[in-house]
Amino acid sequence: MRRKLAAGNWKMNGLKAALSELDGMEAAADGASEVLICPPATLVAAAAQTAKGIAIGGQDCHANASGAHTGDISAPMLADAGATYVILGHSERRTDHDEHDEHVREKCKSAWEAGLNVVLCVGESLAEREAQNTLDIIGGQLAGSVPDGATGHNLVIAYEPIWAIGTGKVPTTDQIGEVHDFMRARLEKRFGEGVGRSVRLLYGGSVKPGNATEIFAVSNVDGALVGGASLKAADFVPIIEALNASAG
C-alpha cells in the first residue's frame, strides 16, 4: 500500500520567520499521509531541527559529492543538514539552468548514494501539450532521468505540466489520469510490477484547497507537489487534510 505524500516546494521563498508555519502543519501531518516540506537551502538545517512529524528536503543537489563547484550543494551536505528528500528535475531547474535528463539522472544517483529519497519532476510545455506530444515527452523524461535501481523507497515521481505551474490553470482530471496511468505502466514495464506499483506518483501544478479533493480522487495520484499554497499553513493544511481523507 503506497502511503500518500503531501510535498511542499517553497522555491526561493522564506526567511527564518517562515519556519513558524511548520507549527501549523504539524497537527495535519499526524494523519494518514506523509508530509514533506522543501525550504530554501538556507533553512534546511533549521527546519530539520524544528519540524516534528514533517520530513524536510532540499530543492536540488549537485551530481558530485564535493568539489570546486561554487554555490552548489551536494547530496551528502543536504543529508548532513537533516534532509531526507531532494527535489530533482524541476522544470524551473531544467529551464533556468539548462538541466537535461542526463544531468538529472546523475544527480539522482548521487542523492541515492547519500541516502536521500528523490522527488523527480517530469512535465510538458504548453506547446508540447497542444501538439499532442505529452506522453512522448513524459516517457522520454522517465527513461532519461530515472537511473536503474529505483524502488518505492527511494523514488517519487511528480508530474508537473509546465503550463500549469503557478498559472492557476489545471489539467482536467482525465488529462491527469491519463498521464499518471501512463507513468505507472512505464514504471511497471521497466522495473517490474512490484517496484512499478510501489513508486508514489504526485501531481503538481496550481494545486489548491479548492481543487485538491477532485485531484486526489484521480487514478494513480498518490499526493501532490505543491508550490505557492505550501508557504502558509492556512493554505497547505486543507490540502493535507484532503489527502488524508482520500487515504482513508
Could you characterize the architecture of this molecule?
- This protein has 248 residues and is an alpha/beta fold.
- Helices cover 43% and strands 15% of the residues.
- The protein has an 8-stranded parallel β-sheet.
- Strand 2, helix 2 and strand 3 form a beta-alpha-beta unit.
Helical content, roughly?
40-55%
Topology as H/E string?
EHEHEHEHHEHHEHHEHEH
Low-confidence stretches: none
Q: Nearest-angstrom radius of gyration? A: 17 Å
- The number of distinct helices, counting runs of at least 4 residues, comes to 11
Helical/strand content category: alpha/beta
Beta content comes to 5-15%
Number of strands: 8
- What's the average pLDDT? 96
Give the termini separation: 12 Å
